[in-house]
Amino acid sequence: MLNIPSNVKQSYWNEIYDIQDKIATYYPAEIKRLQNRIVGLEKDIKQAEEQTKLNDDGFSPMKINDIVYPMYLPDNTYLTGQDTVKTKDGSRLILTFGGDKSFVLVEETASTADTLEVIPVSGNFDFLSDVIGVIGNKSLSWHSNGIDYYMTSDTLEVSELVSIARSVSVLPVSK
Hints:
2 helices, 33% helix
């Protein structure tokens, strides 16, 4: 008869219990998370296929129904909703992104003044390609191509907010 040391037996049983725990709890939760991600990505793909029109050169103008979408999204983040609200100067579009790093991006037709205005702002400043963004408490705002942008999130770091904003501001389109 083979005599197996007790620490080897204990290690064996620990591995068995760990595998059983993963089968019972971790893997089902991971499968559910990935299924939700797939559903979100399928919705994004369907919407892009339905609404994206190619230019003569075969490229998309990165503009879908006058909506400018971020070209960068953190992993496991996807568009969950969009609402349009009419304003006196045009419209306000509210894009809601869900997932691990949820955030809201608001795009609003900028109002124009007949005279020069000085608008006080508070926060830190950062260059976003061709414009300057104002970083507030878990938020970022900027103006580009006649559109005022505002983004806020409880789950994103400032560097991620800036990366998303830069992916919006590099687009050569406007409303």
